[in-house]
TrEMBL record:
The lineage of its organism: Eukaryota, Metazoa, Ecdysozoa, Arthropoda, Hexapoda. It comes from the Eukaryota. This is FYVE-type domain-containing protein. PANTHER family: FYVE-FINGER-CONTAINING RAB5 EFFECTOR PROTEIN RABENOSYN-5-RELATED (PTHR13510), RABENOSYN-5 (PTHR13510:SF44). InterPro entries: Rab4/Rab5_effector (IPR052727), Rbsn_Rab-bd (IPR021565), Rbsn_Rab-bd_sf (IPR036531), Znf_C2H2_type (IPR013087), Znf_FYVE (IPR000306), Znf_FYVE-rel (IPR017455), Znf_FYVE_PHD (IPR011011), Znf_RING/FYVE/PHD (IPR013083). It comes from Leptosia nina. Residues 407-434 form a coiled coil.
Length: 437
């Protein structure tokens, strides 16, 4: 490369003396030997440069590369200086409108074609006959099939049709294809695509001609694209998932809080249905639910959202509502009574029950005496031994159920079983009183 007198930049195998372009290194060397004999030192330097360049091209050492270029710069008799000038911006043109027009036409064509396929798919899956012969006739009535008498090759794979490679038709466009190029769409999935409000079915392991619709690759891709669009629209975001989980924990906490209040009231009344360990276990369960609600509400606030937007305000409102719910409903529970207070109340309740039993025994004795005056009806009845009493066996079975229910924190079931146990105890006491008399 060299600079001419008019500041024109020249490139190629140029003679450093006369600036002639010799097109190759060999011609440049010959030209220099014949035209510029007096510059033999420069010729040797030029040969040395070309020799070093050849070695560099043939994987020469990197140090030689640097030395060669440094020497070439030193041997350059005419120093050329390049001044970096600021480039001016030329004419520019925006192609956005053109690209939008091309894309809109393409999308509109695909949308129109997809809508036509969905209309045909709706007609196919609705009132689909169960009989194979009727089903084939129904499919041909909805979508006319192309005449394949003149078609010798599969349009997709270009393989010839024969006895082993039969001709098939796409159920949405009616085109001809072979079995290997066919794709099958599950009927349940087809119904879900036509009716997005229907529940999404689970795809079967293998879809065959009996359980699906035979489609060509083009129609299958368009229907699958529409299915993916529906799934993306119905897909739940991480924020929605966290909010639903928080609502689920709140739904679990409400009956737990009501059960805790019922258990506390039972202890204050002196009942033996629940004990202090049961109530503490229920309180621990409510505490875990409160921790989960608090953690999910914090997670909702941390989701990306620009400050001051409607989404950010909604997330902050959800967090504040969760905090208020935890403070007012889950952390403001009634304090438990002490064990001494529980024992005292139970003792008073037991004494009242004993007095009622004594009054009932006296009433039964009076009725017994009155009946004996007229003649006892049960004089010859034998008294059943306590060990063989079925009431005792039933009470033992219920006590086992109560222990299992307490281990699994099913305290509502405990309350029902305790009520049944009380009825059996009362019946057993009345039976014992009647036997004594």
């Amino acid at each position: 490369m060299a600079a001419a007198n008019d500041d024109e930049i020249l490139e190629g195998f140029l003679c450093p003396i006369c600036k002639a372009d010799l097109k190759s290194a060999t011609q440049l060397t010959s030209h220099f030997e014949s035209q510029h004999e007096e510059e033999q030192d420069l010729l040797r330097s030029l040969k040395d440069i070309f020799g070093k360049a050849k070695k560099i091209i043939l994987n020469a050492d990197e140090s030689e590369l640097k030395e060669t270029f440094d020497r070439a710069l030193r041997l350059n008799t005419q120093d050329t200086f390049y001044v970096e000038e600021e480039q001016t911006v030329g004419v520019c043109r925006s192609s956005s409108e053109y690209f939008r027009a091309v894309r809109s036409a393409r999308l509109e064509r695909y949308a129109t074609e997809t809508n036509k396929l969905l209309i045909r798919l709706d007609k196919l899956v609705c009132n689909m006959p169960t009989e194979p012969s009727q089903r084939k006739q129904h499919e041909q009535e909805v979508v006319p099939w192309l005449d394949g008498s003149s078609v010798k090759l599969c349009p997709n794979c270009a393989k010839p049709f024969s006895l082993t490679r039969r001709k098939h038709h796409c159920r949405l466009c009616g085109s001809i294809l072979c079995h290997d190029c066919s794709l099958f769409l599950d009927l349940n999935i087809a119904k879900a695509i036509v009716d997005p409000s229907a529940p999404q079915p689970q795809p079967s392991q293998e879809v065959t001609e009996k359980t699906g619709l035979r489609l060509c690759e083009h129609c299958y891709n368009l229907v699958e694209l529409r299915k993916q669009m529906q799934e993306s629209r119905n897909a739940k975001t991480a924020l929605m998932t966290s909010y639903e989980q928080m609502q689920s924990l709140m739904d679990q906490a409400r009956p737990s809080v009501a059960m805790y209040e019922k258990m506390c009231q039972s202890l204050f009344d002196g009942e033996t249905t629940y004990n202090l360990q049961d109530v503490n276990a229920m309180r621990g369960k409510i505490g875990k639910l409160a921790e989960g609600i608090d953690l999910l509400s914090k997670q909702i606030v941390t989701f990306a959202g620009e400050p001051g937007t409607r989404q950010a305000k909604l997330q902050n409102s959800i967090r504040q509502a969760a905090v208020n719910y935890i403070k007012e409903e889950l952390l403001s529970l009634r304090k438990l009574p002490t064990e001494s207070r529980i024992e005292e109340v139970r003792k008073e309740r037991y004494e009242r029950a004993q007095r009622q039993v004594e009054l009932e025994r006296r009433r039964v004795e009076k009725e017994r005496e009155w009946k004996e005056g007229e003649g006892s009806r049960n004089g010859g009845a034998s008294i059943q031994h306590d060990d063989d009493n079925p009431l005792l066996e039933q009470m033992n079975i219920i006590r086992g159920y109560i222990r299992d229910a307490r281990k699994e924190l099913r305290f509502e079931e405990v309350a029902i079983l305790e009520a049944n146990l009380k009825e059996l105890k009362k019946e057993y006491q009345l039976q014992m009183l009647s036997n004594k008399t």
